[in-house]
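Q: Can I see a sequence and its folded structure?
A: Here is a first one.
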Amino acid sequence: PGSVRGGAMAPGSVRGGSMAPGSVRSMPPAPESSPPSSRGGSLSPGEELWMKEILARAKSILTEDYFQMLGIERSADASAVDRAYLTLAKKWHPDRVPLKLERVKGECTRVFAHISEAHQTLMDPKRREQYLAVLKDGGGTPEAQKQVQSALEAITHFQKAEVFFKIRDYAQAEAFARKALAADPGQSEYIAFVAWIEAMKPENQPVEPTRRFIETLGEAIKANPNSERAYFYRGMLNKRIDQHAAAIKDFKRVADLNPNHVDAAREVRLHYMRSGPSSPPKDASIGGLFGKFFKK
C-alpha cells in the first residue's frame, strides 16, 4: 500500500485522489511532452507586451549589423562589446521565456543566436576586421547574408539548368531554372531562360503564346538592358512569328553586346542573304560592328 506502481494509491500520492497538505512540493516536474495547461491560458498584460517585443525584435534584427544588434559604436573596444552582450544575454536568453510564451521561444532563440554571433565576431580581431570589410561593401546584416546565400544557390541551380539544357533534358533544365528564379526572382537571366524553355514546348508554339513570351522577355530586358540572352531569345521568337524586323533588331543588339555571339551573327548574315545581294545598311547604332561579320 502506498506504492506509486502498486494497486491502491495512498492518500496524498501523486496519482491519488485528495492531496495531503504540503504534498505539492514533492511532485516531480512535468515532462516536456506534457506541457502544463498554463501554456494555453490567457496572457497577462506584461506577457502580451513581452511576446510582441520578441516578435518585433526577431524581425528588426534581420536588418541590423552586428554593432547595431549590440547597441554599440563601431569604435567600441572588446570590453564594451562584452558588456553589451552580457546585458542583452540576460534579457534574450531563450531560457528566460516563460511557459506561457512558449509559442515565441523560437523567435527569441533566433534573436539570441544573432546576438551571440555578433559577440563572437566582434571579439575576434581577425573576424572583426573581415566583418568591417563586408560592412564597407554594403553587407553585414542577416538579411543581406541571406540574400547572398540565395543568390549563390540560384547560380548553382542555373548552372545545372544549363547543363541539362545542353543534353536536351528539358524537364530537368526547367526544374533547375525555376529553382534559380525562385531563389533570385529579379535576375533577368533566369526570367529569360525560364521563358525560353516554356516557349519551346509544343503547346506554346502558336502565335499567341509566343507573343506572351516575347512580352516576358521584354520585361527581362527592362530589368537588365544588357541581357544578351533575353535579346537573343526574343529575336528567335520574333523570327518564329515572322516579325523579321524586330528579330533582326534584337540579333544586332546581341552582337553589339557580344561580338563573339556566333548564333546572333549567323542570324544577321542569313537575314541579309535572304533579303537580296545588297550589303547591309550602314546604321550608326550598330557602330560598324557588322562589317567585320560580312567580310568573313
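Q: Show me another, different protein.
A: A second, unrelated one:
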Amino acid sequence: QDVAPMDTGENATPTTNSFKVNGIVFNAHILKSGHWPHYEKETVKLPSPLYDCIELFQKYYCARTEARVLRWAPTLGKGVLESTAFIGNPKIGTVELTVNTYQICILLMYNEKEEIPYQEIYDGLRDQAAPEGTMYLDDESMKQLLLTLCTKRYPLLTKKSGENGDVYALNVNWAPNKRQKTLPLPSAKITAKETRGAVHKAVEEDRKHAIESAIVRVMKHHRTLSHQHLVVEATDKLMQLFTPEPRAIKARIEELIQREFLRRDAEDQSLYHYIA
C-alpha cells in the first residue's frame, strides 16, 4: 500500500495501553469523563485497520475492568502515516505524516484509487448503519478539512472540477523537503465565546459537587447545625479551592434536603439535621 499506518516499534504491549495489530501500533489514552476537554461530539467511520484496533483494545480493557465503560472519542486522536506515494523528491523515499483521525481516514482512501470525488469522500466518513442522530462533520467543516491537505505548503491532494462537483486527486509529484511532516489542523469550529461558555458551565458543575461534598462532611461530623454555622464551616473547607457565594451554598443545601441527605428541624427552620 502507498499509504499505511506507521509501525513505531516492536515493544508495544497492552499493559501500557499500546499494542501492535497487523503492523499498526495503537495507543489508547484513557481518562475519566470529567477530564476530557470540551469538544464537538462528532464521530467518523474508521477504516477497517483502525476499527480492528479499537475492537481488540475494547475486549482487552473490558475483560480487566468490568465495572467501567469505554466511550470512544476517535475524532480527538492523531497518528503517523508512512507513505511512499510522493515521488517529487527522490532523496526522500518514505514520508512520515503526523495527522489527525479525519486526515488519516481520508488519506487511507487513496490506497484504492488516485482520484476521489468530494461526495464520495464525504459519504466515506459516514457510517450508513449508525443510529439516527449520530453527528458527523457538516459540509463546511469537511471542505475546511480537505483544505488542510491541499495547501501550498502541504499539497498532498489537488482539487479540480468534475462533472458532478469537485474531485480530489493524490498529488504524487509532491516534493517534501524532509521525511517527517506534521499537517495543520482545520480551523476551530467553536468560537472563543462558546468555549468560554462551555468552560464556565463545566466549572459551575464542578463547584456544585464540591459544595455539596463540603456540606455533607460538615453535617456528618456535627449531625445538627444551624444554617449560619453550616455556611461558615462549608466555606472554610472550600477556601483552598475557591470562595463560594453564600447563596450558592444555600442552593446546594436545598438540593440536599430534596434528596434527603438533610432535613430541617420541625420547630426551628434555620436548624439542619443530617440524615444517616
